[in-house]
Design goal:
17% strand; Rossmann fold; 400 residues; elongated; 2 domains; six-stranded parallel β-sheet
């Protein structure tokens, strides 16, 4: 298990201590309120635990991409109401991140109170990871808690710099995420299967190259499967395909072969002449029977059944990306079927399943199994970089 401190390593009584807590409050908004508060719900346990233990909790977050300038449309004050509602506590908004205004606000806050600082990205020092800026924020806190895994791939002052200035701890959401990721690829129970889908190989080259050396089964779906099929000499018709990456696909398959990793490509597929819901032309066929004017839009039912049998032999599953064009019927069938198999195996206790990435979360929710996987990460870029085998600066700063 990675060596990092958690809230359990802090004193039980935190009265009078100021906690600087990095959270992700970059919420989707419509008409002045959030359309999805999942990110607030994720950090609620950490915030309330610190407050209930007597700390004065100051929340640090970014909102949008102001690039070092102040915009009223990107102030974190816009999410204050949503955060208040989810936490069930009153929150003081503080329109700075350091200096006299923050100092005065801390004086007003009582033990157990919560303050929301303004958008850390209003200051150029945030994205530049300026040590002076980090020290300026750190001057107001007694310790630092990072509970924003989704921002952990950024080496910014509030995600990495602060951890160098104060005693640093992982919040409960970060702790859960890191333990799940460790169980999936750090120290997994073999055999390990990875499902990697999505449109293009080019966006997931590093993911594929990292995984083939670490898993026993690599299941490739989505548009990228077409490129692998074409590399194996299959005529994929009008399908989305990166013909300039056929040599790359072959190299990945050769690497997998030498590493003892089986690459699973579909042998029956669902095709159509147009990309639309339930088009009259859709049919299921063998991969060698795709017509010149057809495009592959999903993995076929026979392949899905055999992939389900593969999962039954595995102890660990990592999932990133859908198997087909899951947004429209009937091209959601393969993703839904395999996700439900994985969920059933997880519920039986025979499979540890970890999934992540925006499309993946949406696909699992569509299949009705988002809550039946061992862990589903809502992080996008951070989850992808972790799959690539990279050290995440915000996580590395918590170690040692």
């Amino acid at each position: 298990m990675p060596d990092f401190r958690t809230l359990d390593d802090l004193p039980a009584d935190l009265s009078g201590q100021v906690a600087l807590v990095r959270v992700d409050l970059n919420l989707p908004m419509k008409d002045g309120s959030a359309t999805d508060v999942t990110r607030v719900e994720a950090v609620r346990p950490t915030i309330l635990e610190l407050a209930d233990r007597g700390a004065k909790v100051l929340l640090l977050a970014h909102f949008g991409r102001p690039e070092g300038r102040r915009y009223s449309t990107m102030s974190t004050s816009l999410v204050q109401g949503d955060v208040t509602r989810v936490l069930g506590r009153e929150i003081m908004f503080i329109p700075e991140v350091m200096g006299p205004v923050v100092e005065q606000s801390i004086g007003i806050l009582r033990n157990g109170d919560i303050g929301l600082l303004d958008n850390v990205r209003f200051w150029p020092g945030e994205e530049a990871n300026d040590p002076d800026f980090a020290r300026g924020m750190a001057a107001h806190g007694d310790f630092y808690v990072n509970d924003a895994f989704s921002a952990a791939h950024r080496a910014h002052a509030s995600t990495e710099g602060l951890a160098r200035c104060l005693p640093a701890y992982a919040g409960r959401a970060m702790e859960t995420e890191l333990r799940a990721l460790d169980a999936a690829l750090g120290n997994p129970q073999p055999p390990v299967a990875a499902v990697v889908g999505g449109a293009k190989i080019s966006t997931k080259l590093d993911v594929l190259e990292n995984l083939v050396g670490r898993v026993q089964h690599l299941i490739i779906g989505g548009g990228m499967a077409n490129t692998f099929l074409a590399a194996r000499g299959v005529d994929v018709g009008k399908s989305l395909c990166e013909h300039d990456l056929l040599a790359t696909a072959n190299r990945i398959m050769d690497t997998a072969d030498h590493a003892g990793c089986t690459v699973h490509l579909p042998y029956d597929v669902v095709v159509a002449r147009e990309f639309a819901a339930n088009p009259p032309s859709w049919r299921t066929c063998n991969v060698h029977e795709v017509a010149a004017d057809e495009m592959i839009l999903d993995v076929g039912p026979q392949a899905v059944e055999s992939l389900g049998d593969v999962l039954k032999t595995c102890r660990t599953l990592v999932w990133n990306g859908p198997l087909g064009a899951f947004e429209i019927e009937p091209f959601d069938a393969a993703t839904v079927a395999l996700a439900r198999t994985a969920a059933a195996l997880t519920q039986d206790g025979s499979l540890t399943s970890v999934a992540g990435g925006g499309d993946t979360v949406a696909a699992l929710a569509h299949a009705g199994v988002k809550d039946e996987f061992s862990f589903v990460s809502t992080a996008g870029g951070a989850f992808l970089e972790w799959l690539e085998g990279r050290d995440l600066p915000g996580v590395a700063a918590l170690k040692g």
